[in-house]
Amino acid sequence: MPSSEDRIPKYGADSLPATRSISSDGYAHRSMIDSAAEAGPSSVGLDRGSPKLVVANGHSSSTKGYANGSLSPTNGVGAAPFKSMSTNGKSAASSISRVNLPGTTLYDDSFVDREEFVRLVIQSLRDVGYIESAATLEAESGYAMETPEVSDFRQCILEAAWEEAERALVRLGVTEEDGLWEAKFLISQQKYLELLEAENTTAALQVLRNEIAPLQVESDQLHSLSSLMMCSDAADLRQRAGWDGALGTSRRRLLSNLQRYIPSSLMIPPRRLSTLLSQSLLYQQSHCLYHNVPLSLTSPNPRSHFSLYMDHHCDREKHLPRATTAILDGHVDEVWAVEWSHCGTRLATAGSDRCALIWRIGPEKDVSARTYTVDFVLREHQYAVGYLAWSLDDSILLTASDDCVRMWNTTSGICIRVLKEHSDTVTSLAWLPDGTGFISGGLDRKIILWDVDGNRRDSWGTTSIRVTDLAVTPDFTRVVAVGMHYLAPTGLASSTGASRSESSTPPTGGGGARPNPPTRDSENRMIIYDLASKQTEASIRLDGETTSVKISPDSQYALINQAPDEIHLWDLSTCRIARKFTGQRQGRHVIRSCFGGVDSNFIVSGSEDGNVYIWHRDSGVLLEVLSGHGAGSVNSVSWNPKNERMFASCSDDHTIRIWEALDTTERGLPSTEELSDTVIGKGKGKSRERLNSHSDDGGSGSGAF
Questions:
Q1: How far apart are CA 590 and CA 636, in angstroms?
Q2: If 248 and its partner were Cys, which of 75, 168, 244, 276 is the partner (CB 3.0–4.6 Å)?
């Protein structure tokens, strides 16, 4: 059997077919023309036998056809040149000479085929509406956009000439091996739906029995199609079928779906040149270590626009957050948790001083003038606070302290409710992506689902691991939990005991839980649950203790902090490690990392050596080691969801640091000395106390500074 390439005719300068004309819609139609044709805009074309008159703006005065099938330049196909008429109907005085160039490549040292490139340019010109320019390029180059058979096939689909469309598939060389039956099914399905929409159920039934059923369609699919005959009206049909009707875009989508069965050299995929340019941009972005600019067609920021004139490049100084712009000092002991609100203007912090603080960040662009104020100090916790979680609308802040979860109104600072379903330290909190509730996990091996009012909705029962952290995938399908498999190892201190290590940062969980490391190896696991059924999808043994898990915005990856000294990026679809990030120190304490930047291009984490580490996610390259915090661990980091060039870190030194990317020649960046003299908040100069998480010197209640 001849190959696809053997069936494809070549249309170069010496073999240009002289049997096509261009109508103003940008598509080619049959027309007898002279071989030495003049180029230029067409004024008369045969639209399946109907003449069209082209007006000055390039649009046809005829409106023949369906709204769904009206011909327009959106799919970008052209034609061979023929005698051109000016806009008043008279023949153009000039002609375009065909240019014959040596060779077949675009340049002597290029691998790009010249014919393919020119045909893509012609398609792009028609896509954007330059119909006359496309026709002129066809005439000068001698390359036709597509064959008459392809043009006829396109018009058959758009005008619902279904039987002719099926015959055209065969003329285009589509065989059973190429998917002829699948293509016929797509055409018959569209025909069936349009007949149902027109309330011609008798004809639709004949199509179902005589055209679709013989194609050996799967029984479930055939049953689904037959059930559509019970629809009450056309609107019900469109809703149940997920189809926008004959007057919508369904025929163009059908044409796009059929295109995969036709050789691309015959029928060029839609917007092919734009697709290639987009792929080039994505490739450049993936190789730009400091890429941190949101690309947008509408943004007034010139940095947000992709230019074809130069390769994409992001400047390290301007785009990577690596300078401390503020030091917040409102805690009197180690700060263990930091979390931005979804609006990006408020910051929650908490730690071993048994308080959670809600900070408000001023809107000022100038960092030297920006204000940081404490809205509320949440004081009712009896023990250290180890976890924070904002609701989707930022109206509620959850805090975890020992075995309790507290719900706080972020407008008044009042504790709404105290939840006491756990029997051991609550180590993790995660809101559902739709905001209707949240999930808590703890060292008691419980995972509990709550509604937005704090009522218990459901539970996973007693799991096989002492949960150290969990997260819900943004696509609302899975819960990913990490922790220690329940082996009851010896030497494990109670959840209320303090660590006797150099720092009192909890080594296995927040909320005052700071057990000593077990005296023998324990089995650590990542468990992936189906959120709807609560069934285990995967249970994976991990080598070291796990302290943190974050999910990427696309729900494809889980970022897990794992002792000793590694962060692993897991592919959730394959349950394999996609990347390892090393360099930070993590052996005794809870260290929490996160994704950051545009498209989550960065991985950022604290470390027991007092530094902040930033890696490029796709390559694993360590980009920065940021110093500035005092002695002890940097326990947690959080990237601002509304500012891709800002994140916060918290430390055992009692402070929170704001990191930003700044062009110091344009914006006033305070020096390290200036920052040390202008620490913001409360507690500046207080000596570093090693408080037991259950000490009695903390106040109760909440209040504002």
A1: 8
A2: 244
Alpha-carbon torsion (696, 339, 632, 656), positive or negative: negative
Half-sphere exposure of 612 (CA within 13 A, CB side): 30
Residue with tokens 């230019």: 307
The encoded tokens of residue 576 equal: 């394999």
Residues 386, 443: contact at Cβ < 8 Å?
A: no
Q: Is 684 exposed, middle or buried (0-12, 13-18, 19+ CB in 10 A)?
A: middle
pLDDT of residue 320: 92
Q: What angle do CA 45, 46, 47 make, to 5 degrees?
A: 110
CB 483 within 8 Å of CB 465:
yes
Q: Is-cis flag, bond preceding 507, omega within 30?
A: no
User: Both tokens of residue 288?
Assistant: 């730009």
CB count in 10 Å sphere of residue 239: 11
Strand partners of residue 337:
350
pLDDT attached to residue 329: 94
Contact 322, 624 (CB under 8 A): yes
pLDDT at 6: 43
Token code pair at residue 614: 């930033």
Q: What is the DSSP string of 260-316?
A: GGS-TTTSPPTTHHHHHHHHHHHHHHHT-TT------SS-S-GGGS--TTS-----H
For the chain, give the number of residues. Answer: 705
Inter-residue contact 462 to 441 (CB < 8 Å): no
Compute the Cα dihedral for 450, 456, 459, 461 and give only its sign.
Answer: positive
Single-letter amino acid code for the residue at 499: S
Question: What confidence score (pLDDT) does residue 680 get?
Answer: 57
Give residue 38's pLDDT: 35
Rounded to whole angstroms, the Cα distance separating 590 from 385 reads: 13
* Residue pair 151/262 in contact by the 8 Å Cβ criterion: no
Contacts of 391 (CB under 8 A, 6+ apart): 397, 398, 431, 435, 438, 452
Structure tokens that stand for 630 in this block: 């005092």
Q: Find, among 333, 380, 382, 332, the residue nearest to 696 by Cα.
A: 382
Other C-beta atoms closer than 10 Å to the C-beta of 671 total 8
Domains and CATH numbers, the chain: 20-157 (no CATH), 161-245 (no CATH), 272-304 (no CATH), 321-703 (2.130.10.10)
Name residues of the chain where pLDDT drops below 70. 1-94, 295-305, 486-522, 663-705
Which residues, 6 or more positions from 455, have their beta carbon under 8 angstroms from its beta carbon? none
Tokens of 626: 């940021």
| pLDDT on residue 554 | 95
* Rounded Cα–Cα distance for residues 344 and 646 (Å): 10
**What Rg, from alpha-carbon coordinates, does the chain have?**
33
